[in-house]
Amino acid sequence: MKLYELVLDHGRSVSPFVWRARMALAHKGCSPERVAIGYGDKALIAFSGQDRVPVLVDGETVVADSWRIAAYLEDRYPERPSLFGGGAGRDLARLFNHWCDSQQLRTLFMLCCAPTFDLTPARDQPYYRQSRLEWTGMTIEQLREAGSLRQVRAALEPMRLMLAERPFLSGDGPAYADYCAFGGLMWARMTVGGVLERDDPVEGWRQRMLDLFDGLARAAPCAETD
Ligand SMILES: N[C@@H](CCC(=O)N[C@@H](CS)C(=O)NCC(=O)O)C(=O)O
């Protein structure tokens, strides 16, 4: 197996979507070879028919998009620990995936976009600047001013309520919903650092997530000192 991911200066693996895939792969007991690319290396993933990471290659099969990778792993390796816990669980995980994309990542984007620019090699900065201007209508300088820790924390309220009752979003142990939300907080860890208060139940959960799979996520080079 190979997993294509976005790696910027100082070895920072910044993509929340790649982190979802890395955690889902570890959950299924898979350790793919990791292939690091930059924003300017899209030719290396052209074989996938699109220009985003993560891209998973499993033998002859090529899968792009973090949700499609999770669904592929669940269907291809059903005998291994489940990511969704059945059909209804898969649908709820999909709903939660949409919540993460539209709510959690929206506030994280405002906070992490400029620091991600700072970690982007100089040769790719013009692309990054222009593409984010086209998406948001804002310059990197405006985005730097617009990021709000308060808004990031407030957006996590549904997770906070759940994690006050359970160790993981999926119950007693982690599953795909946990990896999905954790990906966003890994983007913050890579670019800004920790964004939560120590006594926040979401922070307790994040620490448990960092410890999973022999500290897979904790070991990655980051902006945070644990
Ligand atoms: N819906 C996709 C989104 C993938 C995505 O947007 N990946 C970003 C990395 S965070 C990317 O490849 N960006 C390249 C670019 O901005 O040019 C997924 O869930 O995998």
Give the arrangement of secondary structure elements.
Layout: E1 2-8, E2 12-13, H1 16-27, E3 33-37, E4 55-58, E5 61-64, H2 66-76, H3 87-119, H4 125-136, H5 140-146, H6 149-155, H7 157-163, H8 176-191, H9 201-215
Parallel strand pairs: 1-3
Antiparallel strand pairs: 1-2, 1-4, 4-5
Helix pairs in contact: 1-2, 1-8, 3-5, 3-6, 3-8
Bound molecules: glutathione.
Describe this structure in words.
53% of the residues lie in helices and 10% in strands. The protein is of the alpha+beta class and 226 residues long. Strands 1, 2, 3, 4 and 5 form a 5-stranded mixed β-sheet that branches. A hairpin with a 3-residue loop joins β1 (2-8) and β2 (12-13). α3 (87-119) packs parallel to α8. It is globular and about 45 Å long. Glutathione is lined by residues 6, 15-17, 39, 52-54, 65-67, 131. Residues 6, 15-17, 39, 52-54, 65-67, 131 line the site of glutathione.
Jot down its keywords.
9 helices; alpha+beta; binds glutathione; about 230 residues; 5 strands; 5-stranded mixed beta sheet
Concise overview:
The chain has 226 residues and is α+β, with helices and mostly antiparallel strands.
Mean pLDDT: 97
Ends distance: 31 Å
User: Which secondary-structure class do the elements indicate?
Assistant: alpha+beta
Estimate the global geometry from the Cα principal axes.
Answer: globular
Helix residue percentage: 40-55%
Main β sheet profile: 5 strands, mixed
Oligomer: single chain
The poorly predicted ranges are none
Beta strand %: 5-15%
Count of runs of 4 or more consecutive helical residues: 9
The SSE order reads: EEHEEEHHHHHHHH
Ligand types: glutathione
**Rg result:** 17 Å
Number of strands: 5
